[in-house]
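Q: I'm a student working through a structural biology exercise. My instructor gave each of us a protein and asked us to get a predicted structure, then write a short paragraph describing it. Mine is Putative anti-sigma regulatory factor, serine/threonine protein kinase. I'm not confident about reading structure output yet, so if you can add a plain explanation after the C-alpha cells, that would really help. Here is the sequence I was given:
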Amino acid sequence: MGAQEFPPGAIREISAAVKEVLTNIVRHGYKGRPGEIGIRCTATPAKVTVEIADSAPAYNPLQAPGPDTTGGIGIAFIRQAADIVTYQHKNHRNILTLVRVKRNGEPDPASGLKKE
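A: Happy to help. First, here is the predicted structure for Putative anti-sigma regulatory factor, serine/threonine protein kinase. I'll explain a few features afterward.
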C-alpha cells in the first residue's frame, strides 16, 4: 500500500479523521439504523487518499457551520488532519474524499531522518 514510507504520525491523523467521518455517518446519516458504508484507500510514498461513500440522505459536511457550543468540531478536525477534503453526491451516494500529502519536514520512516 505504500504506507510504510508514510510517517506514522500522519497515518494516525488520517486514521482518526476517517474514524470521525464513520462515526458521523452512523450517528447523523443513518441515525443508528443499518446502512452501507464503503471505504477505498490508496497510498503512495507522497500521499494517502481515503474515499468514504454512504447511502444515507444527501449531506455535504463541508457546508456545515463551523464549531460552536453545539458541535461541529469533527469536521474542523477532519479538515486539519487532511490536506484536501472534497464532497460529492453521485448515484444517490455521499462521497467524502480525504487526501493527506506527505509534508516537508516530516520524518521518513525508512531512514529515520527528516526530509527537507
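A: Here are two points you could use in your paragraph. Strands lie at 37-43, 47-54, 84-90, 93-101, 107-108, 113-114. The helical segments are 8-29, 73-81. It's a good idea to check both against the output above yourself.
Q: Great, thank you!
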